[in-house]
Amino acid sequence: MGAAVIDRVTAEGRQFQQMLKDLAELEVRVGFQHGQAVEEDGTDICDVAAWNELGTVKSPSRPFLRKSVDENEEKINQFLQAKKADLLQGKSAEQVLKEIGIFQKDLIQEKITEGSFAPNAVSTIHQKGSNKPLIDTGRMRQSVNYVIKKKGSGDG
Fold first, then answer.
1. Nearest alpha-carbon partner for 143 in 47, 41, 69, 73
2. Angle (deg, nearest 10), helices 93-114 and 73-88
3. Euclidean distance between the first and the last CA atom of the chain, given in angstroms as a whole number
4. Which of 68-82, 85-99, 111-125 shows the highest mean pLDDT?
5. How large is the average pLDDT for residues 100-115?
6. What is the Cα Rg of the chain in Å?
7. Among 32-41, 51-60, 83-92, 116-125, which is the least confidently predicted range?
8. Which of 119, 117, 139 is nearest to 49 (CA)?
9. Per-residue three-class SS string for the chain
10. What percent of the chain has pLDDT over 70?
C-alpha cells in the first residue's frame, strides 16, 4: 500500500469554504418588505408598490421594479462580475450580498424617480399637484430596501 494522503486545508481555504457555504444558504431580497412602512392612512407601502407595479382597475401598470432590471441588464451583469471577483479575493458572502442589495435598491429608486410611465390622470394631477407618476409624498421611493435572509425562510 502507498502512503496515506493527508488533506491540509489552509486558513484561506477554510475561509473560502465558509463563503461558499454562506452563499448557498443566504439570499438578498430587494424591494418592499411587508409591514415595514405605511402611508399616513395606514396602507402598507408593499401594497402600494404592488398596485403601481401591476396596475389596478383604476390605474395603469407602472412597472418600475421590472424596468429597474430589464433596462439595466448590462450594468447589473458588470456589477455582478465585479462582486464575483470580490468573493474570489476573500470578501464575505454577506458583505457582497449587502452591496448587491444597495446596488439594486439604487436602481429601483432611480427608476421610480426618472422612469417613463403612463401619465397621471387629470384628477390625480389636481389632487397631488404634479404630473410625476409614482411620486407623491416620496414614501414609496424611500421605502425601497433590501434584507438578507436564509434561503427558503418565507416572507421577506
1. 47
2. 160
3. 55
4. 68-82
5. 93
6. 21
7. 116-125
8. 139
9. CCCCCCCCCCHHHHHHHHHHHHHHHEEEEEECCCCCCECCCCCEHHHHHHHHHHCCCCCCCCCHHHHHHHCCHHHHHHHHHHHHHHHHCCCCHHHHHHHHHHHHHHHHHHHHHHCCCCCCCHHHHHHHCCCCCCCCCCHHHHCCEEEEEECCCCCC
10. 96
How far is Cα 116 from Cα 148, in angstroms, rounded to an integer? 30
* Mean pLDDT of the residues in the chain: 86
How many beta carbons lie within 10 A of that of residue 30, not counting itself? 22
| Predicted structure pTM score | 0.81
Give the other-Cβ count within 10 Å of 133's Cβ.
19
Q: Are 61 and 133 in contact (CB under 8 A)?
A: no
